[in-house]
């Protein structure tokens, strides 16, 4: 398997913990649901964001949209994404957009998106953002298009 003996984790787009059955959990390990992700992002901020999304799934979150965008590099014929994104669409029609920067390509928040405060982290200090590599982003049509979306996906009805 390509993921062995290299510097990347198999970053899940939909985490295995979000599924109840053994077969469903096993299926999350296939490449269609995974992308090369830095260990620090996968085991740090991205994992914490997944826990936050899961903890709100039954009471507040109507849907989760996740994926990758941009290409950092290619190893062994597999594209390494520059960024991961996760959008939480809440039952009240509000939403939060998160971008995780892959593999230590630390940038200022303004280079990634228009940073805003989100409920996941009430106080986002510069140190918090740099440590987790996760940015909470305001709505921007260009950013949404870079995810391969139109914006209509953010509606729950």
Automatic annotation (TrEMBL):
Gene Ontology cellular-component annotations:
mitochondrial inner membrane; nucleus
Question: What keywords are annotated for this sequence in UniProt?
Answer: Endonuclease, Hydrolase, Metal-binding, Nuclease
Q: Where is the active site?
A: 12 (proton acceptor)
Q: Say which domain of life the source belongs to.
A: Eukaryota
One GO term under biological process is: apoptotic DNA fragmentation
Give the matching Pfam families: Endonuclease_NS
Q: Where is Mg(2+) bound in this sequence? A: 42
Q: Where is the DNA/RNA non-specific endonuclease/pyrophosphatase/phosphodiesterase domain?
A: 3-115
**GO MF, one annotated term:** nucleic acid binding
Family assignment from sequence similarity: Belongs to the DNA/RNA non-specific endonuclease family.
Q: What is this protein called?
A: DNA/RNA non-specific endonuclease/pyrophosphatase/phosphodiesterase domain-containing protein
Q: Which organism is it from?
A: Tenebrio molitor (Yellow mealworm beetle)
Q: What is the lineage of its organism?
A: Eukaryota, Metazoa, Ecdysozoa, Arthropoda, Hexapoda
């Amino acid at each position: 398997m390509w993921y062995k003996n290299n510097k990347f984790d198999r970053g899940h787009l939909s985490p295995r913990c979000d599924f109840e059955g053994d077969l469903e959990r096993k299926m999350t390990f296939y490449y269609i649901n995974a992308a090369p992700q830095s260990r620090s992002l996968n085991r740090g901020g991205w994992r914490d964001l997944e826990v936050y999304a899961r903890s709100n799934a039954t009471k507040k979150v109507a849907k989760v949209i996740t994926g990758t965008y941009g290409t950092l590099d290619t190893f062994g014929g597999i594209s390494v994404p520059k960024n991961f994104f996760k959008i939480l669409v809440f039952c009240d029609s509000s939403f939060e957009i998160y971008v995780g920067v892959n593999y230590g390509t630390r940038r200022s928040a303004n280079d990634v998106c228009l940073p805003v405060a989100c409920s996941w982290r009430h106080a986002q200090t510069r140190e918090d953002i740099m440590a987790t590599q996760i940015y909470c982003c305001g709505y921007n049509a260009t950013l949404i298009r870079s995810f391969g979306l139109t914006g209509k996906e953010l509606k729950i009805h």
